[in-house]
Amino acid sequence: MNTLTAGTPAPAFTLLNQDGEPVSLSDFKGRKVLAYFYPKAMTPGCTVQACGLRDSKADLDAHNIVVLGISIDPVKRLPKFIERDNLNFTLLSDEDHAVAEQFGVWGEKKFMGKVYDGLHRLSFLIDENGTIEHVFNKFKTKDHHEVVMNYLQAAQ
Q1: What is the DSSP string of the chain?
Q2: How crowded is the C-beta side of 86, counted as CA atoms within 13 Å?
Q3: Strand 123-126 and strand 32-37: pairing?
Q4: pLDDT tens for residues 132-143?
């Protein structure tokens, strides 16, 4: 797994959102984007992580940040997650994990003695010009939003 690093241009991508509409990274030029990759909608860890971001929306808005949650879930699963947990940001479907591979977050995982390919839980802060400003790779699902906010406050 070769994860992208700060200073690298973010790969251009277009994925379908929870409404089946195409969303491109280039749609947000001039704004910062927090592209966060999560393994599966409506699972306990992913729910805690999403709700933390949901509850931080005003702070993220104040920093001109758009949140895009990216998983390999099919489009039809995403509206259920948004509705169930009142999520206030866009979810994108990367079913064939092509975008995850471009960002270097698709690869070998180990769980309960099994080895398989899957999506690694990482987040990328992409600046207004489409360059990766920071990679968040050390956090727990429950404090992901705090790690992001701490970084933003320190970077001011």
Answers
A1: -----TTSBPPP-EEEETTS-EEEGGGGTTSEEEEEE-S-TTSHHHHHHHHHHHHTHHHHHHTTEEEEEEESS-GGGHHHHHHHHT--SEEEE-TT-HHHHHHT-EEEEEETTEEEEEE---EEEE-TTSBEEEEE-S--GGGHHHHHHHHHHHH-
A2: 5
A3: antiparallel
A4: 999 999 999 999
Tokens 């320190």, located at residue: 154
The reply to whether 46 belongs to the active site is yes
Query: How high is the pLDDT of residue 63?
Result: 95
The identity of residue 130, as a single letter, is G
Q: Can you read off the two tokens belonging to residue 101?
A: 């591979």
Residue 39 is encoded by which pair of tokens? 């393994």
pTM of the model: 0.95
Question: Which member of 15, 33, 34, 46 is catalytic?
Answer: 46
Q: Do residues 97 and 119 lie in contact, with contact meaning Cβ atoms separated by under 8 Å?
A: yes
